[in-house]
Design brief:
The chain is of the alpha/beta class and about 550 residues long. The protein contains 14 helices and 16 strands.
Length: about 550
């Protein structure tokens, strides 16, 4: 954010100038003095005729000037603002929102910002005085935009609809913060392409209305990705046609999901569904107990299916195909974390049936981890034909086995506490792309079990960057391009510890801080106190 270091005279200084000019005029018999009244060099001076008094000259009125503008006050802060002198723009009944030629796809964005500003939406007509014009065009980066304020008008343009939408968020927030959009030009773009929130709707049911409120909040913060973890041991929370028996009593209907998706599309938020497997499938096992994994001693670890049983794969694949059609977004999360068989000290001895299946499938060197990696790759193969980008948790990737995880899987890095934990660089050095869900800063775990503490916006704002993937230390900057972004994650381990309203309040400032650091990871210029006050004002 740039700040003015100088500005035109205003207030008392301007009044003093007016008084001085008027006094000078009165003392000189009504003739103004100054550069405009001085004779030109080399001209002759001629006395005025005594018979004709000089014509009265009106007292000049000083031309109104404006201070050099400052950047608009927004969350996240804009990355570049070219200051200018002028009145800026304020909503007025005489102005409205219009759509430029060949930009008809911006009608939704236009209607939304018009309603928010309380001005009429006039559609595809020429911009007039006081109008806000939205336009598609240009060759900037995805989600970038230019917002220009001059001559009493606003023009927001960008190469895609998302960028123009974010420009309207800047306009909305600036008007909410100060009543106006300052004169000048904003050129803005995000640092990271994936910016969002992850919500565990499996352990705790959240209504469609609650999720929609988060989408509206995300859109205003220029966050673009909502992860829905809707299947786990405690519940399966979306209506199913292929396997209705696994669905919990409290769940979202498909009609509600489509309503959520429609709002998300309007606010340029992509919903990323997750059916976690082969662990965290307790809700499926409750309806199909024959799929339960058992150890050599007969122990049945919660949520773990027997990955050697083809019936387990069939049910999961049925669900993957069903929901891949429901969710049209560009991403799918395959889970793959915390499979209990691989958390044992000696998986082969503890789960001999899995060990035998691994050797049968992959030869004498095959191990349980290879069977788990094969499971992950097989599930990826089910979803891949849809064209979605595939994701999996970092503790579902293993080294030293016969089988490697598919190369196109994005690593969603959340922990360094698993058995055989791997540093982020271990994945990045292999060329893998990564999304940051660092459980040190970005995990909001209800009830704070297992030494988790509710993260604060201040800590994210002052200490975290996308390079801080694990713990508190950043990875080398050379890997920055491979870290595609981050999501703040709500996990409902102790579901009744907070109400949905308390969750919404608890994550509000952390989400605002995250939005700032993903839009521009550089050290913010504003203090935390100033940022927090602004975040409260523009929400």
């Amino acid at each position: 954010m740039r700040y003015s270091i100088r500005g035109a005279r205003r207030g008392p200084a301007l009044l003093a100038t007016s008084v001085a000019l008027a006094t000078a005029a009165a003392c000189s018999g009504g003739s103004a003095t100054g550069p405009s009244a001085a004779p030109s060099p080399g001209s002759a001076t001629t006395a005025a005729p005594t018979s004709a008094p000089p014509s009265p000259t009106p007292t000049p009125t000083p031309t109104r000037t404006y201070p050099l503008s400052s950047a608009p006050l927004t969350v996240p802060a804009v990355r570049a603002h070219e200051a200018a002198r002028g009145p800026g723009w304020k909503p007025a009944p005489t102005g409205g929102v219009v759509i430029a030629a060949n930009s008809g796809g911006l009608a939704d964005e236009g209607k939304l910002i018009a309603g928010e500003l309380g001005v009429p939406y006039r559609g595809a007509v020429a911009a007039g005085p006081g109008d806000v014009e939205l336009a598609l065009g240009g060759t900037g980066a995805p989600e970038s935009y230019t917002l220009a304020v001059r001559d009493g008008r606003v023009r927001i343009s960008g190469p895609d609809e998302a960028g123009v939408f974010y420009g309207t968020r800047t306009l909305k927030q600036s008007v909410k913060a100060t009543g106006a959009m300052p004169e000048g030009t904003v050129n803005d773009r995000p640092a990271k392409p994936q910016r969002g929130l992850n919500v565990d709707t499996a352990r705790k049911h959240f209504t469609a209305g609650w999720i929609e409120d988060r989408i509206r909040e995300m859109g205003d913060l220029k966050l673009n990705q909502l992860g829905l973890h809707f299947s786990d041991d405690q519940g399966f929370r979306i209506e199913s046609d292929s396997h209705p028996e696994v669905v919990s009593a409290q769940h979202l209907t498909k009609a509600e999901v489509r309503r959520i998706l429609a709002l998300a599309a309007e606010r340029h938020v992509t919903v990323v569904p997750e059916i976690d497997s082969p662990g965290h499938l307790g809700a499926v096992i409750a309806a199909h107990p024959d799929l339960q994994l058992r150890s050599a001693t007969g122990r049945a670890p919660r949520g773990a299916v027997d990955i050697a049983d083809p019936d387990a794969a069939k049910i999961v694949d049925d669900l993957l195909r069903e929901y891949a059609q429901l969710f049209p977004g560009a991403y799918w999360h395959l889970g793959a974390d915390e499979y209990v068989a691989l958390m044992a000290k000696d998986p082969e001895a503890t789960y001999p049936e899995l060990a035998r299946a691994a050797k049968a499938k992959y030869g004498p060197s095959g191990r349980v981890q290879d069977l788990a990696t094969g499971w992950l790759n097989d599930r990826a193969a089910v979803v891949r034909p849809t064209g979605k980008t595939l994701k999996a948790w970092n503790d579902g990737f293993f080294t030293g086995g016969v089988v490697d995880a598919a190369k196109d899987l994005e690593v969603e890095y959340w922990t360094g506490k698993e058995i055989g934990a791997r540093q982020p660089v271990s994945y990045l050095s292999q060329g893998r792309k990564m999304v940051n869900l660092n459980d040190e800063y970005l995990y909001y775990v209800l009830g704070e079990p297992n030494d988790f503490a509710y993260p604060t916006g201040r800590r994210i704002y002052e200490q975290w960057t996308p390079l801080v993937v694990r713990g508190t230390s950043p990875v080398p900057a050379k890997y920055d391009a491979q870290i595609l972004g981050a999501r703040f994650a709500v996990w409902c381990d102790l579901a009744n510890s907070q109400t949905p309203a308390q969750v919404a309040a608890g994550i509000r400032l952390p989400l605002a801080a995250l939005s700032q650091k993903l839009w521009n990871p550089a050290k913010p210029t504003a203090s935390w106190d100033r940022f927090r006050a602004l975040a409260e004002k523009v929400r």
